[in-house]
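Rotation project, supervised by the postdoc (A.L.). Task for the rotation student: set up a whole-complex structure prediction and record inputs and outputs verbatim in this book. Inputs entered:
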Amino acid sequence: MAKQGAARKTEAVEHGLKSERGVGGGGRAAELDRLIHERVRLGIVSALAVNESLSFNQLKALLKTTDGNLSVHARRLEEAQYITCTKSFEGRIPKTEYRLTAAGRRALERYLDHMEALIHATRQG
Amino acid sequence: MVAPRPLHDRALDNLRFIRQTMERAGSFTAVPGWGQVAVGVTALLAAFLATRQPTPELWLAVWLGEAIVALAIGGSAMVRKAYAVNDPILSGPGRRFGLSFLPPMVVGGLLTVALYRAGLWHALPGTWLLLYGTGFVTGGAFSVRIVPVMGICFMLVGAVALFGPAAWGNWVMAAGFGGLHIAFGMIIARRYGG
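Outputs recorded:
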């Protein structure tokens, strides 16, 4: 049991090292890691994890970023099906709203586990 | 050449970023610090006026008047701050804060009527402070950490008022609605943008 845990930890750390160095193995896990690792995208997913939904303007103010930057990163997450985007009108004003999907929440949880594993492993080392 | 930061530091930094983003995104930050300071000052004036009232009815009238003034000052300051920090009041954390804050206030209103009818004047300061504090503790779950801490302080002062001598009534009202509002208002204003 302990051996299995240690093996899992080592694997996670190795995965972390690869991702941090930007030379991931090309597998799905490494790809997912890089997707969420970018600061604006990590911020979007983290903010949506504690809110049912957030509008484009709320996310922009929260992450202190530009329209273009937020738009590009949100689209990457949308393409990965980590978030969903709904467009509507409030009166005559268009409103874009984002929500975290189950896949997005799982990706954030994996990312958190991954970071914790890195910290534990480097402390033990 | 700059040495690369250790993995451990970067991982910690990432976790810190996630936590801070979640805190900011999940918190209602439009609790108005300066508005609270203003409410505290009017509460001190009300406490001074209340001590000079000859009858319990007039004493109650002073504090009900103060409640209306405080609601007007606090409400307008909250709307102004919410607008300034782009923090919606009617949705998300702001809505949850309001829905949690409101029930203790309604209970406070009903208990005021009940205690007035029963002639239990001395129980009013403690009841008001306790329920006001409860509102900030429950609503504060959706706000920055200092808000529920402020609520607990109101509850402690309320407990002193409820179980202390009746003569302390105006003093604890001044300490709670005056002193705590001013002290926490200044901290909130300095740390959380006004």
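Student's summary: The interface with chain A takes residues 6-8, 10-12, 14-15, 17-18, 21-22, 24-26, 85-86, 88, 92-93 of chain B (CB under 8 Å).
Supervisor addendum: The longest helix of chain B spans residues 56-84.
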